[in-house]
Amino acid sequence: MERTFREQLFVLLLSLSVLKGDCRYMENNEISKDELYSFFNSELKRETPEELMFRRPLRCLDMIAVEGRFTFTAERPQLSCAAFFIAEPNEVITVDYDGVDIDCSGGDFITVFDGWVMKGEKFPSSQDHPLPLYERYVDYCDSGSLRRSVRSSQNVAMVFFRVHNPGSTFTLTVRKHINPFPCNVISQSPEGAYTMVIPQQHRNCSFSIIYPVEIDISEFSLGQINHFTKRSRPACAETGDFVQLLGGNGIDTSKLLPITDLCVSFTGPTHLKVGCDNTVVRVVSSGKFVSRVSFSYRLLDSQELQTIKLNNVEDFCFNN
Known about the structure:
The protein is mostly beta strands. Helix content is 13%, strand content 41%.
């Protein structure tokens, strides 16, 4: 039976023993299992009021996939909170602060992170993100009115926050914007099709699917003429332009298992089944050429997972 994106994230969020950022340490979260279930079972629908802006309260532990205005008001001290934001693959996210009433001098904070953090792992990884790690954290208490709007570099972002006093409140306005050349993406769906294009930029781009899937790489073109006749990782690394397929149970691509590398341009399908919690297509680009890869993916059912249970990748996924 297929699990929805919200159900999958529920499993991931329950596995969080620590929500950690380099600038702030997040302690035990006080949200209850019932509160989590009520959130993931609820339907987020865009309302059509006069202002055409979706509004609802922000929870201490939250997942948001729609534009809108979200207000947090503390009924009791909340010392370890995080809100995850996700957009479509070709979108980026802006988070605007509004009506902030917290005690920065008393240890309260609101920090926007450019990406996601789970169990101390970050997406995109430091190797793949265009900004140094310290620039990916924007703390309201440090920047104040100087920076009331933060824009993500990819389709995911998150906010850590801590408040000590009942009645403390703030509002976040979340908007989405078209990104003409998406680079790092987390898929909202366990099935779909996508084409990733890197237009002569020296960067690494990943498409992350947080499900065990069958993936079909139907076409890729790396723009260069090369003489490698077989798929081998040393040869591909030497070209400077190649496609990686990675698998594992975390979100940091630098810590995932390399399943295969492709570096000879071709047109034709390559089918692979990956039983990991996270399957990633990653393009490494030297910036000398236009790199392009097209692929489709679908969720593996329980019978398929049993069939590949003895596969090396499957062993790696379950044992790490």
